[in-house]
Amino acid sequence: MHDDRTAALPDALEQARRFARVRSAHRTETQEDYVELIADLIAATGEARAADLAERLGVTPATVANTLTRLKRDGLVEMRPYRSIFLTDAGTAMAAQSKERHGVVVRFLLSLGVPEDVAEMDAEGLEHHLSAETLAAMRRFSGERG
Questions:
Q1: Subunit structure, briefly (predicted)?
Q2: Which residue has the higher pLDDT, 92 or 19?
Q3: DSSP the chain
Q4: How sure is the predictor about 35, in pLDDT bands with cuts at 50, 70 and 90?
């Protein structure tokens, strides 16, 4: 219901849909960051260890342990005592998709003239919140196919 007080606001259902999308992106953001970093560590060093995740994410080992438990529950990682962390097929797919989105955002920001270090930093947050339509527009703007 609109009245004079809310006339300047978007439709309530539309606004609720927008907020729901942001909450959904926040829920998957941590998962995506972790699986992308795990994939990068495995590619670079042959293994991903909880201590490396904690150091590179700037969080405590307890935070990593709790998050890994959730990632395992969600079917994204496999863990064995005294062994490295492994991605499941679903985790590998999520990592690849997240890395691709990150790259699109970085290339787009670079095409705007944003310095590389700033583009990398800004892409870390943006990559989780962009729609497929916006990513496609960024690709087109940057002269990419896809």
A1: Homodimer.
A2: 92
A3: ---TTTTTSPPHHHHHHHHHHHHHHHHHHHHHHHHHHHHHHHHHHS---HHHHHHHHT--HHHHHHHHHHHHHTTSEEE-TTS-EEE-HHHHHHHHHHHHHHHHHHHHHHHTT--HHHHHHHHHHHTTT--HHHHHHHHHHTT---
A4: very high
Count CB-CB contacts under 10 A for residue 33.
19
Predicted confidence at residue 100, as pLDDT, reads: 94
12-141 CATH fold: Arc Repressor Mutant, subunit A (1.10.10)
Break the chain into its structural domains and give their ranges: 12-141
d(CA 29, CA 26): 5
Mean pLDDT (the chain) is 89
Give the pair of three-digit tokens for residue 19. 């907020």
* Short-list 10, 44, 64, CA closest to 72: 64
- Quick one: which of 60, 72, 143 has its CA closest to 104? 143
Please say if the pLDDT value at position 67 is more than 70. Answer: yes
- Mean pLDDT on 42-53: 95
